[in-house]
Amino acid sequence: MIERTDVLVLTHRLSRTRLFSTGSNLTRDSVVVRLADRDGLIGWGETYLVPGAAEACRSMTDGLPGRDPDEAVAELTARPGLHRWALGAVTMALDDLRARARGVPASALYGPRLRDRVRPYASSRGYVAGSEPLDAWHEEAATMAAEGFGAMKLRIGRYDLAGEIGAMEQVAAAFPTMTWMADGNGAYSLDESRRLGAALDAFGFRWLEEPLPTDDYAAYAPLARELTIPLAGGEILESTRTAGPFLAAGSFDLIQPDVSICGGIGGVLEIARAAAGAGRWTVPHACSGAIAMAATLQILAILDVPPGAPAWAEPLLEFDVGENPIRTDLATIPLAPVDGWMVIPDAPGLGIEVDETAVRRLAVAA
């Protein structure tokens, strides 16, 4: 039985502003859920700090003490109208706790393990103030290659399209063994997206992610039909109900559900099944801390990719490499690539142990 629940907001002020195509960050933030049972086991969950998420996590967890975790997760996932981003953190913590009680990895709650390692791709820190994109991308690519990454996603769209296309061509040529992707962060028009997609396909990029504004995923469908490079997106979609129409319309060749956004591990797997039914593929999105990354690895352990799938459907792990102690400090043994691979933990629960001293250091609200 669950005995205690805690919801904390973690934050870290960055040493320099993180710049993207359409915005910037001064901090990295997460909402963390901690559940303890009567046997001393602890389950952890994590989501993004968006409006209402912390309050919704508290509302969901207030009624959990005295309840069985299996019954709690079944009831919560069946209840309509819940804040999906908060539900992601709460069900993640419940799955961590349920799996620890059984002595199995959280993936075992959902299906048989299909792989014990995946390739990570370095999800870029973004632009660097005072540096030209080519210089910053070249320096970052060299660092990522030295750290064992064999794939990298550039965040693009802040500067002149022709100039950035030229810079991407040069950096890809300078690192020919690296697998490349690009994320437009919704910065482009339809015509610009056509030009960009054609260029990246010629350079051998694996996919183009969210070049158009994300408030109109329906507009992605005609672009996906025109492009020869796979079009990826859908990270903010919260359920199969919201994702289904875009999958049916062909808005994405590859959908990217996020474990913290779509209601947890089960939510990602539901969207993946819907994608498969629509003839589409799934590579999860992940851009937060160590707890959510561990949950994403558990998903990747069981994500079904049938023989004969295209190379770009490979079940990669998105590994955000920007400054973020919520990612680097929370796990007692940090998650990191080794020789170009991420080993998927097979220890009970999410497979990591959380450093509660680091949690307290980063916590700004309880």
Structure report:
The structure is a single chain. The chain is of the alpha/beta class and 366 residues long. The protein has two domains: 112 residues, Enolase-like, domain 1 (2-Layer Sandwich), CATH 3.30.390.10; 227 residues, Enolase-like C-terminal domain (TIM Barrel), CATH 3.20.20.120. 37% of the residues lie in helices and 20% in strands. The chain is built from twelve helices and 14 strands. The strands form three sheets. It has an eight-stranded parallel beta sheet. The chain has a four-stranded antiparallel beta sheet with strand order 3-2-1-14, with helices on both faces. It has a two-stranded antiparallel sheet with strand order 4-13. Strand 2 and strand 3 form a beta hairpin.
What number is the mean pLDDT?
A: 97
Number of strands: 14
The CATH architecture of the largest domain is Alpha-Beta Barrel
H-E order:
EEEHHHEEHEHEHEHEHEHEHEHEHE
Which CATH C-level class of the largest domain is it? Answer: Alpha Beta
Question: Strand order within the widest sheet?
Answer: 11-10-9-8-7-6-5-12
Poorly predicted runs are none
- What would you call the shape? globular
Report the span from N to C terminus.
Answer: 22 Å
Radius of gyration: 20 Å
Work out the helix count: 12
Structural category is alpha/beta
User: How many discrete domains?
Assistant: 2
> At the third CATH level, what is the topology name of the largest domain?
TIM Barrel
Strand content: 15-25%
Biggest sheet: strands, sense, closure? 8 strands, parallel
For CATH, the homologous superfamily of the largest domain is named as Enolase-like C-terminal domain
Instruction: Indicate the percent of residues in helices.
Output: 25-40%
